[in-house]
């Protein structure tokens, strides 16, 4: 595929056929994804390929608490889980809100689930002492994650980045024997999508780009 076509059509695949994804194909995707940039070229990524049903079910189970919170905040008209605006949703409401009905199938029905971790002992986190949530360490792993998405698309497959189960990172670390200094960064599903979407909707450039200053002229 032509690069801009891949970039414009790498959608979040939500439903997959039963077609298995071979280890050879996964290897090829990862063998290309590994050329992603990372701070200091530290390449702190680590990938766990999950195909066993019991493990996929565990991931789906760990996703439930955060998925309920996400759904409850969304129903309240909030931007779920943001770190700026305090939530008005109480614990009882969260407990009474069901998670998305498709939550379990997200993981269980996907031919492959990739757990992508990053080694925090090699990543420079320049913003760790700022009084806001850290984002810079993510910059050393998400280019790699996105390369996997692009590679999957290029192979006629589809992928989806998920993060909801990471709220239960300690449980993921225990189940998958991940050392404590590895942060779980993404839980990706990969497979042959039932349908390849070709038209994604996104904000236009003029909505997010200004010249010279944040409040400058729109590009
Ligand atoms: C950092 C990140 C976290 C995400 N987490 C989740 C998630 O936990 N569950 C989920 O269903 N989708 C998740 N997504 C997928 C987005 O919701 C999806 O990319 C967005 O809705 C756009 O969909 P489209 O690419 O098909 O247009 C995540 C995407 C990113 C980049």
Distance between the termini: 28 Å
Helix and strand run = HHEHHHEHEHE
Structural class, by secondary structure, is: alpha+beta
Low-confidence stretches: none
Number of alpha- plus pi-helical segments: 7
Percentage of residues assigned to helices: 25-40%
What do we call the CATH homologous superfamily? NADH Oxidase
What is the CATH class designation?
Alpha Beta
Largest sheet: 4 strands, antiparallel
How would you characterize this protein structure?
The chain is built from seven helices and four strands. The longest helix is centred in the N-terminal third of the chain and has 23 residues, at 53-75. The chain has helices at 3-9, 23-33, 53-75, 91-96, 103-108, 142-154, 169-175, and strands at residues 45-50, 112-119, 158-162, 182-191. The model has no long low-confidence stretch (mean pLDDT 97). With 219 residues, it is an alpha+beta fold. It has a four-stranded antiparallel β-sheet, with helices on both faces. Helix 2 (23-33) packs across helix 6 (142-154). It has a single domain (3-207), classed as NADH Oxidase, CATH 3.40.109. Flavin mononucleotide is lined by residues 11-12, 160-164, 200.
Topology of helices and strands:
Elements: H1 3-9, H2 23-33, E1 45-50, H3 53-75, H4 91-96, H5 103-108, E2 112-119, H6 142-154, E3 158-162, H7 169-175, E4 182-191
Antiparallel strand pairs: 1-2, 2-4, 3-4
Helix pairs in contact: 2-6
Bound molecules: flavin mononucleotide.
Residues 11-12, 160-164, 200 line the site of flavin mononucleotide.
């Amino acid at each position: 595929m032509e690069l801009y076509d891949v970039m414009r059509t790498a959608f979040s695949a939500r439903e997959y056929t039963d077609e298995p994804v071979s280890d050879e194909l996964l290897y090829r995707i990862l063998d290309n994804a590994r050329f992603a940039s990372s701070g200091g070229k530290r390449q702190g990524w680590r990938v766990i390929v999950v195909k066993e049903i019991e493990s996929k079910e565990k991931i789906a189970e760990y996703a439930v608490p955060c998925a309920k919170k996400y759904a409850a905040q969304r129903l309240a008209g909030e931007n779920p889980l943001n770190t700026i605006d305090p939530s008005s949703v109480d614990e009882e409401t969260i407990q009474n809100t069901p998670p998305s009905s498709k939550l379990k199938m997200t993981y269980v029905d996907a031919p492959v689930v990739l757990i992508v971790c990053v080694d925090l002992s090699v990543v420079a986190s320049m913003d760790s002492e700022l009084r806001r949530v850290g984002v810079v360490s993510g910059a050393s792993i998400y280019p790699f994650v996105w390369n996997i998405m692009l590679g999957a698309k290029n192979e006629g497959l589809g992928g989806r980045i998920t993060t909801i189960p990471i709220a239960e990172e300690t449980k993921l670390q225990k189940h998958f024997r991940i050392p404590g200094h590895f942060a779980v960064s993404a839980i990706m599903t990969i497979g042959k999508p039932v349908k390849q979407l070709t038209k994604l909707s996104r904000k236009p450039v003029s909505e997010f780009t200004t010249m010279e200053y944040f409040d400058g002229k729109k590009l």
